[in-house]
Amino acid sequence: MWSAQDVAREQVRRQAHGLDMAAVTEKVAEAATRERETAEQLRRGGSLSKFETDLERLAAIWEAKHVEWQRVRDLMAQAGWGAYEPERDTQGSTWARERTERRDGALAAKAAFEARRREEADELRAELWLSAASSRLIRAAADRAGLMPA
Question: Which residues are within 8 A (CB) of 145 and not within 5 positions of it... i.e. 6 or more apart?
């Protein structure tokens, strides 16, 4: 459900809270190193560990993290912030709000789908092919019971 950019933006926003410019600059360098390592590993066709199965996704996430850490560093330098405060980052706050709205929409859609499935499971459906005389009797009985046979 989440793109590599969504994952990176959320993690950077959480991890950067309260960091000063030197720490953010270190994070940019670390993300660049990880981006290079995963891209190289991907080119070689291997995996980083026996547990890592989606190396392409990991490489995309590190690339997105590198871009996001650079954006945070540049924002701090431009605004003259001593430390990163997510609440003051208007673009990051907009992205976070959009992620929250998408998540809430997906959760609501899933809940609605599950409710429909539960309702469908409670329905009783029977299909009978009867003669016209039998059919009339069943329709009359169903009508008296308040049911509607199809």
Answer: none
How many residues make up the chain in this entry?
Answer: 150
Closest CA to 130 of 120, 117, 140, 122: 140
Q: What are phi and psi of 48, to 5 degrees?
A: -75, -30
Q: What are the start-end ranges of the H helices in 21-131?
A: 21-44, 55-79, 90-122
- Yes or no: say if 76 and 21 are a contact pair by the CB < 8 Å rule: yes
State the pTM of this model: 0.68
133, 138, 141, 147 alpha-carbon torsion, rounded to 10°: -140
pLDDT for 56: 87
